[in-house]
Amino acid sequence: MTPDYMTRAEILAQGQTRRSIQAAVRSGGLIHVRRDRYLPEGSEDIFVRALRVGGRLTCLSLLALFGVFVLENRRLHVHINPRDGRLRSPSNRKERLDPGSRSGPVIHWTQPLEHPGLSCAVGILDALVHAVCCQTPRAAVATLDSALHLGLITHLQLREVFAALPARFRVLETLVDGRAESGPESLVRLMARVLGCDIRLQVSFDGIGRVDLLLDGWLVVECDSKEFHASWQQQVRDRERDLALAALGYSTLRLTAAKIMYRPDEVLAALRGLVLSRRPV
C-alpha cells in the first residue's frame, strides 16, 4: 500500500543513465520529489508531500489510509528522524518549510520503533504512538480500538505501543477494547464508563441481532452512521428492531455518528438523563 522511494544510485544500478532519469522526470514516469528521492509515476500525492518534506507519512494521515478511525485529520503528519534536517514545503521541494505555520505539516521528531527501509511511511506501531500523542485521550482510545478491531495490531503489539509512550499515557491501555466496531461506538463506551454504567459490547438477541452497547442491562445504544443507515429501508429495519427490543423490556437510544463525534456534550447529557432515571435516588 505504501510505495518505496528510489535514490539516484538505485536507479542507475538498474541500468538507467543520468539522461534517461532526466527524461523520465520530464515525461512524468518518475517524480523527483526532493534531492536524491524519486517516486514512480502514479504515487499518491499524500506520500509525495510527506517525502518532499523530508520524512515519512505517519500518525493520523497514515492511519486514515488504512481505514483506522481518527476523529480529526486536517493536516499532513510527517515523521522526521531527530538527526535529519533540510525540511522543505510539502508543495515545493525548493522552498524551506516554515515550522511555525499552523496550516503546515505536523512534524513528529522521534526515533522510530520500526525501520521500514525506503518506504514513504512509518510502520503501524510508530503511527499509533504518534496518534496517541496527537489526540485527546478519548480519541486516542478510539483509534487504538479501531486498529485492534481491524487486525492491524495484536494485543502484544499494543503493549509495545504503550511501552514507547510517555508514562502519562499508559493509563489508557486498560480502556482499549478491540471489540468495538466503530470509532463512535468507542466514544460512547467511554462516556458510559464516566457514568459508572455496567457496559456490554456487541450483545446478541435471538431473532433480532446484535446491538452496539447494552448499558446497565436495559438501555440499548446504537451508533448509526450515514453509510449504513441512510436508506429508508434500513431505517424501517432499525425501527422494527427497536420495537422487538421494547417488547423484551429494553429501551433503545439511537445516536448518529456525527452527533457523537462533534456534539459529545449533548450525547453525554442524554445518556446521563436516561441512565439516572432508572437508578435509585
TrEMBL record:
Single Gene Ontology MF annotation: endonuclease activity
S-adenosyl-L-methionine recorded as keyword: no
Keyword Secreted: no
Region named Disordered: 83-105
Comp. bias (Basic and acidic residues): 83-99
All copies of domain DUF559, residue ranges: 219-270
Keyword set, alphabetical order: Endonuclease, Hydrolase, Nuclease
Taxonomic superkingdom: Bacteria
Name assigned to this protein: Endonuclease domain-containing protein
Organism listed in the record: Microbacterium memoriense
